[in-house]
Amino acid sequence: MDFVCSECGHRESTNTYRAKCSKCGGLWKLDYTAPKFDLAKVDKNTWSMFRYREFMPIENDAWQNISLGEGMTPIINFADGVLFKMDYCMPTLSFKDRGAAMLIAHCSSIGVKSVVQDSSGNAGDSVAAYCGRAGIKCEVFVPEATSPKKIGMIRAHGAMCNVVSGTRDDCAEVCRAKVAKDGDYYANHVYNPFFYEGTKTYIYEVYEQLGRIPDNIIIPLGNGTLFLGVIKALEEFLTAGIIEKMPQLIAVQSEHCAPFVQAVEQKSDVPVEVEVKPTLAEGIAIGVPMRGKEILQYIYKYDIKMIAVPEEKILPTRGQLAAQGISCEHTTAASYAAYQIYCEKYGKIAECLIPMCGAGLKSEPW
């Protein structure tokens, strides 16, 4: 099993500490093909996402000392065929635990002693938690708009947290400069493809729980952490004959930061350069998505619908959900707002799966 450069095809062992291709600077893909998915091969005695390890690039038993019981989150029928996958029911209250558990298990298996990472908050929190579990030193960079509660959680897990002036993209640049200068292991959810091997379990669970894949699936889209995991799992299901066609995927961005929405409108093969305006949906406020070209290829290949959510809809939608018992963060509320906008634009849909990605305790204001 190797890393393969997405640009030039150069291969390196997954034991490498290099964050990207040493030849051309392209991002890694993982040369791994999962076995044909079969529920009979799921380890039902393991109550975490690692019950699916038969279909994941597990290198040894490091995961056993890393797992915090992530995954296995419930699905609730919220209303009128709207299904909420409650992925904020995780150790750090966000879906990012799926990817972080997988990535840090990999880091542990190859002997990594310290990592750095940049994040809008949730991924940094997750990586910090699993590094704490693994005994790996962790340093996280977050932008100044990050919720203080997320910063507090990162530090509580024992990680150093650096708050960077400027946008989420500015924060990433500062962190990557440190990686380039000091040679730290970049445990990043955008660069490292092991992260997506964790987030793909979202779809595995949906199939095990429902016995089917819903016809419509909402996916928040910033850097593509969940998006790429969902695509990976659904393509595996197409190959295995579990589904006959790709469900209708609906990608969500904020109107204040919508490089993919604008790219599709302009029929561009690369994300449009946008001015990033302040948005409550901090989890998808990515002006320069590093896997943008790859993500757009999937958007066009599978005719994925794009929805940009107006800022003024986020807080009222969050309040609407909270009034019905669902306390989620702003980015998650934007996903439900996108569902409502989609129905207004294209007509009511019979069934739709929406991820509840982050808990309400992690962000203010109400």
TrEMBL record:
The keyword Lyase is annotated on this UniProt entry: yes
Keyword Transmembrane helix tagged: no
Domain of life: Bacteria
EC assignment: 4.2.3.1
UniProt-listed Gene3D superfamilies: 3.40.50.1100
GO molecular function, one term: L-serine ammonia-lyase activity
Domain called Tryptophan synthase beta chain-like PALP: residue spans: 66-358
Keywords: Lyase, Pyridoxal phosphate
Biological process, per Gene Ontology: isoleucine biosynthetic process; L-serine catabolic process; L-threonine catabolic process
Cofactor dependence: pyridoxal 5'-phosphate
Protein name from the UniProt record: Threonine synthase
Organism: Pectinatus brassicae
